[in-house]
Amino acid sequence: MSTKMPQVADRSTLAKSLSTFLKDNPTLHLGGDADFHQERRHRLEIFGFHALPKDNQAPMGRVEFEGIRGPHGSISIRLFYPKAVVDANQKQTAAPVYMHGGGYTTGSIDEFENGLRLLAEASGAITVGVEYRLAPKHHLPTQLDEYSAVIDWAQGPEGEERGISSNPVFGSGDSAGGNMTEAVSLRRRDEGKKNIAGQLLLYPESRIPFDTPAAEENNSGLYLECNGIFSFADHYLPKAPNKTCAPSYKYVSPGMQSANYLENQPLAGLFTCGFDPLRDVGVEYGSKLEQASVDVQWHHYPDLTQSFLQFAPWSQECLKATMDVAKDLKRMAYGS
How far is residue 87's CA from residue 61's CA, in Å, rounded to a whole number? Predict the structure, then answer.
């Protein structure tokens, strides 16, 4: 862990557990050559909570399936209540609202449930997973609109009824979800809305990594295919006749913005991985946040790929990294 941010990070040797998992699942990719519909199905077959062996399913105090009315229709959410909260009937806990990764195009709460259970149980925070509308059927700003709507819900009376404090409601997400967390923080600040209490950024896609050492070193064969990131961006960006924006737009590529623009944001916990093509754009964003006087706690894992939250059932190293996320959430929410 460090708060002295460099411009790029390094990698060491890929953890043996991850190397074994990737060799055992050679057709598992994010942004590979297969049609994204096939990727959606295959990822669910591997990562879906229902598909995990019982011994690998993380325990949970209670899971609630809920829906809220959003700006583009109903939004399905899933709330994960830690056992300590259920047993003690504890009120007013912190709550991270979680936007899953998958290139804005694939992914579901089902695939991330195990990781969200781990995060909730270890942090003691009620964790809210968002089943947002996916690209390319739905473009920006749909996903950010829905993210902001769920934050409003968690900060409001509906969240309070479930034991969520209106103040420590955090934004959180991995990869594309990390990008959307960066963007929603900026947008809510710009709109003068009550902002999230903090940002949990797991290997975020702060901008498209077309010019970084990590994009070259980790171009292929490490789950996330670097060249596939461009197709995901194409899926996400709005098209005519709708209002369009450039790929450098502030809510698309937070990492391309100046440090001055990034000022006055909530504190951040940033997690990067050595064998991730997004590694250096995440580090670059953390460095800019630091220049903007934002409190940043940086955690780097030189032996991991991205998606450690999902890989935890097969890798002790990934499980440890997931526990570090929970520790950082506790630090930001409760100061411990």
Answer: 8
